Amino acid sequence: MDATSRLSRSPKTTFQIVADEAILIHLDTGTYFSLNKIGTEFWNMLDGAQTVAGHAAAIAKKYEVEEAIVTADLLELGGKMAADKLVDEAARRRFHGRPPPPPLACCAHVPDTNRQRSAPRAFPGDANFRPCTGGRAQSALAPSAGGVDTGAP
What we know:
Elements: E1 6-9, E2 13-18, E3 21-26, E4 32-35, H1 37-45, E5 47-51, H2 52-63, H3 67-83, E6 87-89, H4 90-95
Antiparallel strand pairs: 1-5, 1-6, 2-3, 3-4
Helix pairs in contact: 2-3
């Protein structure tokens, strides 16, 4: 794990906030984890979209402390939570260490309020996902677009 890691809360983790402190419990392992006020703020930020460095910058600015110290502390905390399976390293696991690709801009992914949809949208990883061909027909035997994330680890 490093400052570019994107962490998200594990769906197998439940938590309760009491007096600005969070109590985390992994539902499968029973692992119990207690967070102080700053750790709880970090926990509440974990959505898989922002990097650890981004969270550290926000906390450092809020409390007027050195960003490098906060980054080191969050990496240590994130590492402990990852070891106990309380959080997932979303970007690393899903994209094999590479940063996630930019959002797709094609007919299946761009909202269009002027068009009615006959079927729900499908995204990479969904069983019904088919890469956009830019309006061109694609043979069922043709390989899918390279680099599309299937969600497989």
